[in-house]
Design a protein that fits this description.
Blueprint lengths: L7 H6 L15 E2 L2 H12 L5 H15 L20 E2 L8 H6 L10 H14 L4 H8 L2 H5 L5 E2 L11 H24 L6 H38 L3 H16 L8 H18 L10 H14 L5 H17 L21 E4 L11 H13 L6 E5 L5 H14 L4 E4 H11 L4 H4 L3 E2 L5 E2 L13 E3 H8 L25 H33 L3 H5 L4 H4 L15 E3 L1 H17 L5 H9 L6 H8 L9 H18 L19 H4 L33 H9 L12 E3 L9 H14 L4 E5 L3 H9 L8 E3 L4 E3 L5 H8 L8
Parallel strand pairs: 1-2, 4-5, 5-6, 9-10, 11-12
Antiparallel strand pairs: 3-9, 6-12, 7-8, 13-14
Helix pairs in contact: 2-3, 3-9, 6-19, 8-9, 9-10, 11-12, 11-13, 12-14, 13-14, 14-15, 15-28, 18-19, 19-25, 22-25
């Protein structure tokens, strides 16, 4: 029974979904308010320090953008002028937007809007950061790679220190800035250059904090205005409650569960959409909100039902946001929407179980709402309650997409030993988006701008002396003539030289991107919410807690299957010559089906077979080592990253046939540690055993997808599934997530999409509505092996 004037489910029915696809869903528009106000501010502040220009631009936007409160909502906050609109960021990019609204995104703007867009872009021209990079790196450097290295700017991630915000409010943070400013002005020993930089930065922080406080008060005023004209008494009381809350937070520490949720939402929306686009969320949701829930329950202000309903209103806000992505991303991130992962479970600073009542409320809310956003992730550890696992299994069964599981047994040793993170901080890690680790409150602004390295393409080039099969151009490293290879070790070395070549390009592009972001895109508001920025008097772009820069690698197990097949069939058994294999690959196996079946019959990863599993381990370890040769902008070397989204499907079109039996353009395996679709035939435990041989502590944060039929999450099978998760954890595998949609349902959704608008599936590190994907990506998901429990 709803306790609000309008139920969250009713609001959900009216959401205009802004998931990534081309064209976007009907009704989505482009709002020009933010770029218009930003441009006005930039024109007025020419010549001023960039950090102050950014703060003043944010203030101009928050003071003048439209604010609205939709009928019935109890958590408020908007980022565009109406619920159907997205915004964009000319300081980041401008050229592709104008092209897109005349092509795949043609319904986003009318003629008047297109004309204004052109006027805005006239100012930005080559000023946008994504245009500036062409001054320093030739586009041939990253475009003429035949797909071996795919470069694009995605949006960054980071997690504010919400615990501090909730303890002292933005007013308290502003007092810290003002104290530090006074100390700075009284420091006679400081170098003049440092003094100027710190003073400008601290003043920018104050401007930003005041702007956000005033922005919240604009909602308070709007709610009072609506309450005066509201005929429904219940809704009028709700509006007055919203007014009181927004007048108090985020300036002051929240005192109730509702105030904490509202404070969080406004800050999340500003840091992730309005100030600059960010993906993910990463908050340890149950940890930061439980004290407010407990206090309200203890003092009789809220029931469990009322608390869940407030969470459901928050879920509606998560679901209605979105980013405008380039059309080229439509397959690589098909159906995605900001990847706003929230975390439950895990451990306390004392390394005890952190599960509480809010952990279960989150799962219950996800069950009742069945929304794409926010994705739920569970930190799994040895002390996790069985009841939480059972509740999570029930969620998997009804949502088909949430939650994902992350293994503390793998992650915490990786953070402490591989990355040098102090144990206290490692115990507090969150998952920022699909797979990307972060630590709340720490200065780890991550950008996946290092792009993608397609490992099967590197193998193709290794077998062709660096020459692209399709264009005939030399695009890779000139490795030796493959006819000279005498063993699989020769093939491996040629492959790794290609990886080294393209990871060097990834490093250069990433470093240039970081330098441009530091110079042109300071983050004064985010800096106020990140530990130590105030004390240092530095914008968060100017230093880093941990310089995390991570190219994504795809297709490692296609490479492992390929190398194992070559080792067995060509070099050991000598059933075919290397020349025969190379000719078959050149011609996409045409007329060579017998040879292809021979290569397909070789051992394949995912079946607990050391012959290929140890090859997979060698590939992953040595690729990681090649990446780590390249120091990053902040002094920490590159490291592979597991957030590959749908790139194994979308980017495989660039790669020709590979020795594992794959044909030209066919998809790579999903994730980074999942077996190739349909090749894992020995059951789900064999998959875990294969994956466990690739130690994430010496490689990176691997993504593992598994697919089960719904009946294996019911009745007696629930205990078996719980045991399966325990085995996964004990084997030290970093991550696992599940699709549990019946094949017949997926096939029917392809034939009758209007009957399945809310059908969710796990694509890779994220979930998406099945109907928002291309048929090819849908087919790829259908082709994944359906596992069974005995």
């Amino acid at each position: 029974m709803t306790v609000s004037a309008v139920s969250p489910q009713t609001l959900k029915e009216n959401i205009c979904f802004k998931t990534l696809k081309v064209p976007l869903r009907p009704g989505v528009r482009l709002c020009l308010e933010r770029p218009r106000l930003l441009t006005q501010s930039y024109k007025e502040t020419e010549g001023e320090p960039m950090v102050l220009r950014r703060a003043k631009a944010l203030s101009r936007i928050l003071e003048n953008m439209t604010v609205y409160i939709q009928d019935g909502e109890r958590i408020v906050g908007n980022f565009a002028s109406d619920p159907h609109s997205l915004t964009f960021y000319p300081e980041l990019y401008c050229r592709w937007v104008e092209k897109a609204v005349n092509d795949g995104y043609r319904d986003l703007l009318d003629e008047r809007g297109i004309n204004e867009l052109r006027e805005i872009n006239e100012y930005w021209g080559n000023k946008s950061v994504h245009s500036l990079d062409s001054k320093y790196v030739s586009r041939d450097y990253w475009r003429d790679t035949g797909g071996a290295f795919v470069w694009f700017y995605l949006f960054e991630g980071g997690i504010p220190n919400y615990e501090k915000i909730f303890q002292i409010g933005l007013n308290g943070i502003m007092e810290e800035v003002e104290r530090r400013l006074t100390e700075l002005e009284n420091d006679a020993a400081i170098h003049a250059k440092d003094f100027i930089e710190q003073k400008d930065t601290l003043e920018a922080l104050i401007i930003s904090l005041r702007a956000v406080i005033n922005f919240s008060k604009r909602y308070a005023g709007k709610a009072k205005e609506l309450a005066r004209d509201e005929g429904d008494e219940k809704r009028s009381r709700e509006l007055l409650e919203i007014a009181a809350i927004c007048d108090w937070i985020p300036a002051n520490p929240p005192t109730t569960f509702h105030e904490a949720l509202q404070s969080f939402w406004l800050i999340h929306m500003i840091t992730h959409i309005i100030e600059i686009p960010m993906v993910g969320c990463g908050v340890r949701f149950d940890r930061i909100f439980y004290p407010f829930y407990k206090k309200d329950r203890d003092e009789g202000r809220i029931t469990k039902q009322e608390a869940q309903e407030l969470l459901e209103f928050l879920w509606v806000k998560f679901e209605e946001v979105g980013h405008l992505h380039p059309p080229m991303m439509a397959e690589a991130g098909a159906g995605a929407n900001m990847w706003q992962t929230i975390i439950i479970g895990g451990t306390t600073p004392e390394d005890e179980d952190a599960t509480n009542e809010v952990s279960y409320l989150v799962l219950d809310t996800a069950k009742s709402m069945r929304t794409l956003q926010p994705p739920v992730a569970i930190r799994y550890h040895d002390k996790i309650p069985n009841d939480l696992i059972m509740s999570a299994i029930d969620l998997i069964k009804v949502s088909h997409a949430h939650p994902a599981f992350f293994n503390d047994k793998a992650m915490i040793p990786w953070l402490t030993t591989k990355k040098g993170i102090p144990l206290e901080d490692a115990l507090d890690y969150g998952i920022n988006s699909c797979m990307e680790w972060n630590i709340p409150g720490k200065n780890i602004l991550t950008r996946t701008s290092a792009g993608l390295i397609l490992l099967p393409k590197c193998l193709e080039l290794a077998l062709n002396m660096g020459v692209d099969k399709f264009s005939g151009r030399q695009i890779g490293y000139p490795t030796p003539d493959p006819t000279s290879f005498q063993s699989i070790d020769d093939v491996m070395e040629a492959f790794l030289k290609q990886v080294r070549f393209f990871s060097g390009r990834a490093a250069r592009m990433s470093d240039i991107g970081d330098a441009l972001y530091e110079e042109y895109l300071p983050r004064p508001f985010m800096s106020a919410l990140i530990d130590d920025c105030i004390e240092k008097g530095k914008d968060c772009r100017r230093w880093s807690y941990h310089g995390k820069r991570a190219p994504c690698t795809v297709g490692a197990n296609n490479v492992a299957d390929s190398l194992a097949a070559m080792k067995k069939v060509v070099f050991e058994e000598k059933r075919i010559s290397l020349d025969e294999l190379l000719d078959a690959l050149k011609h996409n196996w045409d007329g060579k089906e017998d040879l292809r079946r021979l290569m397909l019959s070789a051992p394949k990863f995912g079946n607990d077979d050391d012959y290929v599993d140890l090859m997979a381990r060698e590939v992953q370890v040595r690729v990681t080592e090649e990446m780590e040769r390249h120091p990053g902008y902040y002094g920490v070397s590159l490291s592979p990253e597991g957030s590959v989204a749908a790139a194994p499907y979308a980017m495989a079109i660039f790669t020709g046939a590979t020795p594992d039996g794959r044909k030209d353009g066919e998809p790579f395996h999903d994730g980074t540690i999942s077996p190739v679709q349909g090749r894992d035939t020995n059951g789900p435990t064999a998959v875990l055993k294969s994956a466990s041989k690739v130690d994430p502590v010496v490689t990176y944060n691997h993504l593992l997808n598994q697919k089960f039929m719904p009946q294996f999450l019911e009745g007696d099978f629930r205990d078996a599934f719980t045991a399966y998760l325990k085995t996964w954890s004990e084997l030290g595998i970093y991550h696992i997530q599940f699709n549990v949609v019946d094949r017949d349902v997926l096939l029917d959704a392809q034939e009758h999409p209007d009957d399945h608008n809310d059908l969710m599936v796990r694509v890779c590190g994220y979930a998406a509505y099945f109907v928002d994907m291309s048929k090819g990506l849908q087919d790829d998901i259908i082709a994944r092996t359906e596992q069974k429990l005995s």
